Amino acid sequence: DAGVIQSPRHEVTEMGQEVTLRCKPISGHDYLFWYRQTMMRGLELLIYFNNNVPIDDSGMPEDRFSAKMPNASFSTLKIQPSEPRDSAVYFCASTKGGGAYGYTFGSGTRLTVV
Amino acid sequence: QQQVKQSPQSLIVQKGGISIINCAYENTAFDYFPWYQQFPGKGPALLIAIRPDVSEKKEGRFTISFNKSAKQFSLHIMDSQPGDSATYFCAVRNAGNMLTFGGGTRLMVKP
Predict the structure, then answer these.
(1) To the nearest 10°, the Cα dihedral for B9, B12, B18, B20?
(2) B96 in reach of chain A (CB within 8 A)
(3) Contact A42 B41 (CB under 8 A)
(4) How far apart (Å, rounded) are the C-alpha atoms in residues B65 and B59?
(5) Burial of B41 (0-12, 13-18, 19+ CB in 10 A)
(6) Among residues B38, B30, B57, B15, which one has the least CA distance to residue B103?
(7) How close A40 gets to chain B, by Cα (Å)?
(8) Cβ contacts of residue A99 below 8 Å, gap of 6+?
(9) In this model, does residue A102 exceed pLDDT 60?
(10) A43–B98: do the CB atoms touch at under 8 Å?
(11) CB of A4 closer than 8 Å to CB of A92
(12) CB-based contact, B86 to chain A, within 8 Å
């Protein structure tokens, strides 16, 4: 298995622009998570899905953030409009529920908003 | 509310020494306690994990010690190597399969 695949690896955008981050989870995993990592706040859970359904989005910072999972093999995290304080590394992770399974993280997308 | 507190924030150990990282949690409903290792430019990777019904788990040079009554668990890295230099995160999992991470410990192992 290729693991959790995220794209793009790096994104530089101007303030006010729309940004879309993409994630392909591991086949057979029924949970998908979006995390944001910054020096100040560490790893923060933004939202997670179970069987493509959003379960908890309480970590989504503002209405500017939205996430979708149209099918079991694809998810997006969108920021519109983007702001400099959104600059961070965004990770997607997936796991199989029901047991002592760890999350598998993707390599992340480093977002810079200028 | 910080659900898991990790210490120290940074740690320098000589090659061959023992690295110890600690975590404390508050909610007794957590059912799974993993440790993750992260290298620069990479996502966190599962290193070792423990369930609350055991007090210790060892995998190679890595050991988790778990104290349920004190609500604490720790990672011990024996015979630390320069290749172990990374950031380590403890985490706790709730019934909803959601992980909450500690703040991380940056470990540097000096040759």
Answers:
(1) -10
(2) yes
(3) no
(4) 12
(5) exposed
(6) B38
(7) 9
(8) none
(9) yes
(10) no
(11) yes
(12) no
Phi, psi of B17 (to 5 degrees): -85, 180
Q: Say whether A107 and B44 touch across the interface (CB within 8 A).
A: no
DSSP-assigned states of every residue in B23-80? EEE--TT--BEEEEEE-TTS--EEEEEE-TT-SEEEETTEEEEEETTTTEEEEEESS-
B51 neighbourhood in chain A, CB within 8 Å: 100
Q: Which residues of A touch B96 (CB under 8 A)?
A: 55-56
Q: Binning pLDDT at 50, 70 and 90, where does residue B94 land?
A: confident
DSSP secondary structure string for all residues of A19-76: EEEEEEPPTT--EEEEEEEETTTEEEEEEEEETTEEEE-TT--STTEEEEEEETTEEE
Contact A4 B43 (CB under 8 A): yes
Do A106 and B43 count as a contact with CB atoms less than 8 A apart? yes
B23 touches chain A (CB under 8 A): no
Q: Tell me which residue in A42, A56, A100 faces B96 most closely, judged by beta carbons.
A: A56
Closest residue by Cα to residue B21 from B71, B79, B86, B73:
B73
Query: What is the spatial distance between Cα B64 and Cα B74, in angstroms, rounded to a whole number?
Result: 6
* pLDDT tens profile B1-37: 568 999 999 999 999 999 999 999 988 788 889 999 9
